Request: fold
Amino acid sequence: MLTRFAPSPTGELHLGHAYSAVLAHDAARKAGGIFRLRIDDIDGSRSREDHLLAALADLAWLGVDWDGDPLRQSDRLGDYAAALADLERRGLVYPCFCTRADIAASLAAPHGPPGPVGTVYPGTCRHMGAAARERRLADDPHCWRLDMGRAAALAGDLDWEEADEGRRPADPAVHGDVVLARKDAPASYHLASTIDDAAMGVTLVVRGADLIASTDIHRLLQALFGLPTPTYRHHALVCGADGKRLAKRDGAAALAGLRAAGADGRVLAADLLDGRLPTGYSLQKA
Ligand code: GLU
Reply:
């Protein structure tokens, strides 16, 4: 059994992160397994070292101890590039030169319903001729998108094991041609997360129910790369008094603030494990 917690050091950790970390840590410790940290810091413009240090201090305060050194995604850019090159050789990705405005303009025409995670890309650059593509690749900013039609056809029917629920079908096609490498970063969350979970030997992914839709895509990437599929536990989300899921802007729920105010992190962790939240917060399935 190997679980992980994967903070993005782009802001302060809050009660929602604490809930996720405590559940993942507890699952590993109860099974005599391993609990590791993955630092999702490929976003160079938003990731900050002070946020990372604060997150590590928050986890220690909660009594969440981790095994080995944290895996930093910023150290693994070569692995992401190699994975993308592999998909390119197989004709499963293509460069996309569209700006947000281009995409919005083409979506103004009726192209079907929006996807479960953001807009579904209309496929404009998939149809670009080879010569134009070569010419633009050298000079123009671009991301890389998965050719979902081809990839999904190649992979066939997919599902995964959802802890305590059983098999759950994956439906990657509804997401359209998702981005696997961004204009400003050599990988997207989907690509980096899938490759790293496999490289770390993660057997149980514990994360919020808001990421169930992403698991459709991760399951497809596992199939394309021949990687093992972990079991997933998508847990309920911590919501504030307004019933909305906590976001980075909800300063009141920040762990650093609770820590500074003298709260006992281990008591909080034990309460979270039992599903008891501080006043004003609740757990809701997405
Ligand atoms: N860094 C991601 C997040 O905070 C991790 C999600 C995951 O566990 O895969 O949302």
Summary: The mean pLDDT is 94. Residues 15-30 form the longest helix (16 residues). Residues 6-8, 40, 193, 207, 211 surround glutamic acid (CB under 6 Å).
